[in-house]
Amino acid sequence: MSHSKEGALDSTYIRNHIRTVPDWPEPGVQFRDITPLLQNPKTFRVLVDLFVHRYMDKQLDIVAGVDARGFILGAVVAYELNLGFVPIRKKGKLPFLTVQEEYELEYGSATVEIHTDACKPGDRVLLIDDLVATGGTMIAAAKLLTRIGAEVVEAAAIVDLPELGGSKLIRDLNIPLHTVCNFAGH
Question: Which residue range or ranges hold the Phosphoribosyltransferase domain (predicted)?
Answer without folding.
Answer: 37-163
